[in-house]
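Students often ask what a holo structure prediction actually looks like on paper. The answer is less mysterious than it sounds. You provide the chain, you provide the ligand, and the output is a string of C-alpha cells encoding the 3D arrangement of the protein together with pyridoxal-5'-phosphate.
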Amino acid sequence: MAGRRQEIGAAVERILASGRFLLGPELEAFESEFAEFSGHRFARGVASGTDALRLTLVGMGLQPGDEVIVPAFTAVPTVAAVCAAGLTPVLVDVDREMGTIDHRAAQQALTERTRALIVVHLYGRPATIPDIGVPVVEDAAHAHGALGQSNSVAVAYSFYPTKNLGGLTDGGAVVTNDAALADRITALRTHGRSEAGYYEAIETNSRLSEVNSAVLRIGLRSLDADNARRREIVSQYRSASPGMHWPPDHPRHVQHLCVVRVPERDLFRERAPFETGVHYARPVTHEPAYRRFARDPCPHAEDWARECVTLPCFPEMTDSEVDEVSHGLA
Ligand SMILES: Cc1ncc(COP(=O)(O)O)c(C=O)c1O
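The corresponding C-alpha cells follow.
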C-alpha cells in the first residue's frame, strides 16, 4: 500500500509538471490499457459509472419514449442513468437464486418501444445475458476483471473509489468493439463536439481526469491479484459457515460485495461482531422516485432486499481480520 501511495504521489507530480490535467496522455494510456484488459477494441473514460451508462444509451441513438429494461434489484444509478438519458426504464424482477435479471421477466417486459436491456453483474458475479432480441448494455460497476466476451453493445464501468478498480474521485468508462459508438462517446463527453469541430449533440461534459487516469493505471496492475484476495476471503467465510444461504458461486466472481442472505437480517446485523452493510435495502420499485417505472410485481427483488447482508471483504484486510469475521460467522 505504501508503494502504491508513492506511485500515486509520483504520478501527481508528473501531471502537475506537465500542466495537462484533462484529455491528455494519461487518459489515452489508460484507455488503451483498460480496453486491452477488458478484451475490447475501445475504451472511453468518462466522469462516472452513471455517465458511462447514460452516454452509451445516448450514443446508441435512443430517443425519448424509448424503453430500456432494467433489473429491479440494483444500485439506483443503473436506473437513474436511463432516466437521465431521457428514456423510460422498465423494472423487471430478478432471478431468485442469483439476484440478476430474470430472463423470463425480461422477455415478458418487451413492448414495441423496447430498445435496450441493461444487465447488471450484481456484486461482481457475471450474470447470464438474456437473448430477447434487443441490444444489451452491461453494467459492470461491480465487475472489474470478472467478464469474458459477450455480444453486448458496450460495458459500463464505475471507478468510484470503493470499486474493485477505484480512482481518487468519481470516474467511469465505456468499453466497446463498436468504433462508431466509441467516436460518439468521445464527442458526447466534450459537449457533443465532433472531431470536425461541429456541435452535433446537445450535451454537457463528462471527462476522466489525468490524475484519475494515472491512479487507475496503477490500480489496474494489481487488479487481478486484488480480486484473487477478495475471492480467498469469501471462500474462507463460506467454508466457515456452510449452512448459511450463500448465492451460487462463479469461478470469475470478483466479490465486489460479499453478500449472504439471512432471513432475520436485522437481528443478525445487531448481533454480528463485525461491521455489515446492506446492498440494497429496497428494490428500485420501492424507491419513491422510481415506483412509477414498475409494471409487474417483483417478489424476488423484494426478497433479496429484505434478506441481503454485506460482509467485510477488501483486499487490504489482514488474515486476522478475516479470521475474526469467519469466527463470528461460524
Ligand atoms: C451497479 C451500479 N451501477 C452504476 C453505478 C454508478 O456508478 P457511479 O457512482 O460511478 O456513477 C453504481 C455505483 O455505485 C453501481 O453500484
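Strands lie at 42-46, 67-71, 88-92, 114-120, 136-139, 154-158, 172-176, 258-261, 308-311.
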